[in-house]
Amino acid sequence: MFEIRTRSTDGRARTGTLRLAHGDVQTPAFVPLATRGAVKTLEPRDVEALGYEMVLGNTFHLYLSPGPELIDSYGGLGAFMRWTRPIITDSGGFQVFSMGHGSVAEEIKGRGRGRGSTSNGAILEIAEEGVRFRSYIDGSERFMAPETSMAVQAALHSDIALVLDECTPFHVSRDYTARSTERTHRWLERCLDWHAQHGPRDQVVYGIVQGGVERDLRVASAETVAASRCGGIAIGGSLGQDKPQMHEVVDWTTASLEQSAPERPRHLLGIGDIDDLLIGVGLGIDTFDCAMPTRLARHGVAIVPDPDARWRVDLAKASFRNSHEPILEGCPCPACSAGFTRGYINYASRAGETTGPRLLTLHNLSYIQRLMADLRVAIDAGTLAATVAAFMAGAAPSVR
């Protein structure tokens, strides 16, 4: 299922190919979010034209609406949304537990709600059997067990399904983190048991490493997941209160996985800032997902090669009203190459015209796709360190 092509000689970075039911995915890769069956403001053919080979669907939201039975009647999420390439579906754990932790859920990924807001819902009970919660859509009481999550993902016909886990925030105690991680491991086995009996034969199941910011818990969780029957491994949960700590936690985890599961693919959940992608690839992450590029676009923010500004420029600011500059000079994305200016983006964003977010989404996703392609080329050529240093210093991705 995962073929590694090149391993970096000075780190854990590698290039490879995920061979999935609906096609191949070249890694390392960024995976755009199709949370409710759509990459916001885009059609599937737009996403494919940008060079993306896989998207992520949100199990929790699709479970509540329109429901797995309806999507299954269309032949799965890909057929429903007219996306013919691979899909990865998360387990729903992040969204379920965000309801219980409220605003603290923002700590889980470091910068806001990475994969959809569920602030109007509520957790009613977390038990060994599963989680009872109140739907944010209609207030009805719902239940999600590990088996429920796997059954929903089977109905979605995704290529990669993630097991249900408890996603603990940064502020909880070590004792709670340890007990939660142990429960996540038990849920892992229940998910794998259900899938072995009922799941699609061509669907790959990823386990999820938890353990908070405790090194021994992270390493133990990585070893437990690696020893399981899962086909791939995701890294989730609280990764720290700042970027250095987050990178440290990822480093502990991938170092352990390099020893215990060196041939299995690794996915980092909910992380996608430019610096995090650059560092994560060096630490041996194969795939990433994050709402960042599409969420920024909806707020008038473009991704640009400016590390001092966190690779961002807010084109909704009044100072860009009369700007005749493109979003990014020399950028080959559909928005820049067509001549749309910063002044027009400013107008469209402030006027509430959906064309503004669409153009910025095309630009932001194009930027990240070209960045990841450059990183793959650099790993294969043995020049990753120099390439990362150039990006960290403000270089733009290659023009393709």
Give your account of this protein's structure.
There is one protein chain. This protein is α/β, with parallel strands linked by helices and 400 residues long. The protein has two domains: 289 residues, Queuine tRNA-ribosyltransferase-like (TIM Barrel, Alpha-Beta Barrel); 95 residues, no CATH class. It has 16 helices and 16 strands. The strands form four sheets. It has an eight-stranded parallel beta sheet with strand order 4-14-13-12-11-10-6-5. About 4% of the residues have low confidence.
Number of helices: 16
Rg estimate, integer Å: 20 Å
Stretches with pLDDT under 50, minimum 5 residues: 102-119
Going across the biggest sheet, name each strand in turn: 4-14-13-12-11-10-6-5
Corresponding CATH architecture of the largest domain: Alpha-Beta Barrel
Biggest sheet architecture? 8 strands, parallel
Task: Look at the structure and give the mean pLDDT.
Answer: 93
Can you say what the CATH homologous superfamily of the largest domain is?
Answer: Queuine tRNA-ribosyltransferase-like
Strand pairing plus helix content: what structural class? alpha/beta
Principal-axis shape equals: globular
The total beta strand count reads 16
Q: Beta fraction of the residues?
A: 15-25%
Helix amount, in percent? 40-55%
CATH topology of the largest domain: TIM Barrel
Q: Compute the number of structural domains.
A: 2
Which CATH class of the largest domain applies here? Answer: Alpha Beta
N-to-C span: 28 Å
